[in-house]
From TrEMBL, chain A:
GO terms for cellular component: cytoplasmic exosome (RNase complex); nuclear exosome (RNase complex); nucleolus. GO terms for molecular function: mRNA 3'-UTR AU-rich region binding. One of its GO terms (biological process) is U1 snRNA 3'-end processing. It comes from the Eukaryota. SUPFAM superfamilies: Ribonuclease PH domain 2-like, Ribosomal protein S5 domain 2-like. This is Exosome complex component RRP45. It is found in: Cytoplasm; Nucleus, Nucleolus. Pfam families: RNase_PH, RNase_PH_C. Belongs to the RNase PH family. Residues 32-163, 189-255 form the Exoribonuclease phosphorolytic domain. Transmembrane segments: none annotated.
From TrEMBL, chain B:
Residues 75-147 form the RRP4 S1 domain. It comes from the Eukaryota. Component of the RNA exosome core complex (Exo-9), composed of EXOSC1, EXOSC2, EXOSC3, EXOSC4, EXOSC5, EXOSC6, EXOSC7, EXOSC8 and EXOSC9; within the complex interacts with EXOSC4 and EXOSC7. The catalytically inactive RNA exosome core complex (Exo-9) associates with the catalytic subunit EXOSC10/RRP6. Exo-9 may associate with DIS3 to form the nucleolar exosome complex, or DIS3L to form the cytoplasmic exosome complex. Exo-9 is formed by a hexameric base ring consisting of the heterodimers EXOSC4-EXOSC9, EXOSC5-EXOSC8 and EXOSC6-EXOSC7, and a cap ring consisting of EXOSC1, EXOSC2 and EXOSC3. Residues 26-63 form the Exosome complex component N-terminal domain. One of its GO terms (biological process) is U4 snRNA 3'-end processing. Pfam families: ECR1_N (PF14382), KH_6 (PF15985), S1_RRP4 (PF21266). Keywords: Cytoplasm, Exosome, Nucleus, Phosphoprotein, RNA-binding, rRNA processing. InterPro entries: Exosome_cplx_N_dom (IPR025721), Exosome_RNA_bind1/RRP40/RRP4 (IPR026699), KH_dom_type_1 (IPR004088), KH_dom_type_1_sf (IPR036612), NA-bd_OB-fold (IPR012340), S1_RRP4 (IPR048565). One of its GO terms (cellular component) is nucleolus. Residues 169-209 form the K Homology domain. Gene3D superfamilies: 2.40.50.100, Nucleic acid-binding proteins. This is Exosome complex component RRP4.
Amino acid sequence: MRETPLSNCEREFILKNISQQRRLDGRNAYDYRDLRIAFGVSLGCCHVELGKTRVLAQVSCEVGEPKQTRPHDGVLYVNVELSPMACPSFEQGRQSEEGIELSRLMERCLKESRCLDMESLCIVSGEKAWHVRVDIHVLNHEGNILDCASIAAISALAHFRRPDVSVNGEEITIHTLEERNPVPLSLHHMPLLVSFTFFSQGKYMLVDPSSKEEKVMEGKMVVGMNKHRELCTLQVTGQMLLLKDQVLRCSSIALTKVTKITELIHQALDNDKQARSKGEKHGFAVLVSGDKVTANRLPKIEVNVEKFEDSDEMDEGQSCSDDADAQNGIEELEMQTEAAPRESAVEILTKGVGVIGEGGASTWLDIPQENTKQQAAKKRRYKSVAMEEGIGS
Amino acid sequence: MSVDIRLASSRPAGADLYHGDNPGNIVTPGDIITADTGFMRGHGTYMEDDCLHASVAGTVERVNKLISVKPLKTRYNGEIGDVVIGRIRELAQKRWKVETHSRMDSVLMLSSVNLPGGELRRRSEEDEKMMRHYLKEGDLISAEVQNVMSDGCLSLHTRSLKYGKLGQGCLVCVSPSLVLRRKTHFHNLPIGASIILGNNGYIWISPTAQDKSEESGGYETNLQPVPKSDREVIARLRNCVLALADCKMLLFDTCILYAYEASLKYAVKDLLKPEVAVEVVDLVRQRLELEGS
């Protein structure tokens, strides 16, 4: 089924905001959405979430004949599956133009960058070699499938272990997983794709577009890089012309992003390896814990309350304290509990300051009269100064 | 400015909202309708193990020997004579492809539109090249269903002067099952706004056109700035329509007017709050029951 097209108002609104450096979800122009990498129980299974876009990659291998032209190399297959589960406009089975472009880019990223050592996949030259297959399934499409898919594919390849092979003269034994520990694939480097979208004839550029931004974009550039500053892939699509320094600037932005993401991947791989070696629970089930009250809750969203005027509404107080908690790193107040203190009027003097006492005379010690008057005056002055600061900021 | 936070559990549950009669024969996908093999199966059913099952959630309808399930939430299925509002998606040879929230894009043929200069002109090559001048991608039009083709694709026409390109206003999208087939779908409300209830669930709210003497064939859009009072009326109407749609009330001009009158004591943006919406719809329901009985 085809998607409902974006209305003219929405299109103009998004473009106008982009020209004023604003995005619908409040990110900066070069910010990625939240990236979450998780590995499954089976080796070579990786699930990546980039905001709401979700991609699952699975690596598998089998023994087969090498290619005629390359008898000493193994074979790598890359396949991207777009199903109606991701988006109603994708059709099952039939490869749309977008699907073909995605498949081709993923192939180029993984094969032509020579990240995987193909010679190590050869068992008997000219007769037997490993066929490694990367299947990428898009589970949800909320923009920027390509970046998500490349992260998933590389993480899955790094996570995968193939059965061990031993050669005894003419005899070749492929050991099962019980006999010998499986062996990781030899990955030279991790090439990752970063997408840049352009608007207004190349004047404005955004990284990691959401689905709405993708619908109004004029052109797209995909840069594939690894953290060693090596450019692996470059593709420009759309109706626009780019200047040379724009392309160079984009590749340097891509470098910072790729370095960060590679670190994240290594961290996730380490965590998984530790969990497996200690015998702890690992896999996707760990991410979904159903016995907590907070299951099925939405991730924390930070609300910017700086520009709001100081008023007597306790709602403002609620959101202020929420912000304060976020700053102090305390466990955030659940949405459920915030509704309870609606009746009480909370007066917050300055943002992020927890006022313990409510002013007034001290009830601890016997202090002579003049001092309490001075203290009260000081407190009043502090309050008025704080109020002014609160409004002025 | 204040931020509203409310408990998810205090939201009114769906069961409390429905006040009508119990239709009695609602089925969900997988329910067995009958084990009798003497019936022919219609849309929304399938046969398994000699039993007739429902494949969609809806009400069972029986016509002699034909059993079908009419779904509650569905894409728009067109009938001849329906008024629809659609958005031009693309231009093809001698036709426009219009998106009307149905399973396939509807088709507006070049020969089914009013061209300026009279009705009986033959469509020439020039007209084909000027198609984009009349209607381009992204434009909203109101049209009538002329024909339903064998694959379910709708053929539209704008042959009357009341149909054509829509100018300034607000589009509200609701489920098609909430808009009944009535004698007229174009209403000029006495509060200064006109409303078009499309059968496909698209509702267009616009300021009332001041002079009725525009006989341009519906392609000239009035781009004069709309005054603020009119904008407020339109915004309030839009929120009322959304409130009625959320509570699954059937939409027609009377109930929208009642909802507008009941909402006057709230600010326009307060109508977006769930509890205010439920209250307004309750008032409308009571008033409709009073008048009906």
